[in-house]
Amino acid sequence: MAKDPLDEYFDSVSARVHSSPRRLAKVVRAAYPIGVPALIMKSSTDRFGEAAGYSFHLGTPDEYLRRIA
Fold it and tell me: Taking the chain, what is the end-to-end CA distance rounded to the nearest angstrom?
């Protein structure tokens, strides 16, 4: 069975990142787009961003956001 892409990413990250807020922020930022099929989400993210007035929207599903947090 294939491993989840988010789990693979977190397994590849050193535990030392927790000692530096700057490094940890980079890890969290890199984790957001993992597992999101970018071309499928493109139309939805454009519409959500436009409706909300945001300049960008990553389109990360709630399930992944909860796991990242």
Answer: 25
Contacts of 9 (CB under 8 A, 6+ apart): 30, 31, 34
Percent of the chain's residues with pLDDT above 90: 29
Look-up of token digits 């999101």: 36
Residue in the block written with tokens 């890199």: 30
Model confidence pTM above 0.85: no
44 pLDDT higher than 60: yes
Q: Are 30 and 9 in contact (CB under 8 A)?
A: yes
| Torsion angle (degrees, nearest 10) of CA 66, 62, 38, 16 | -10
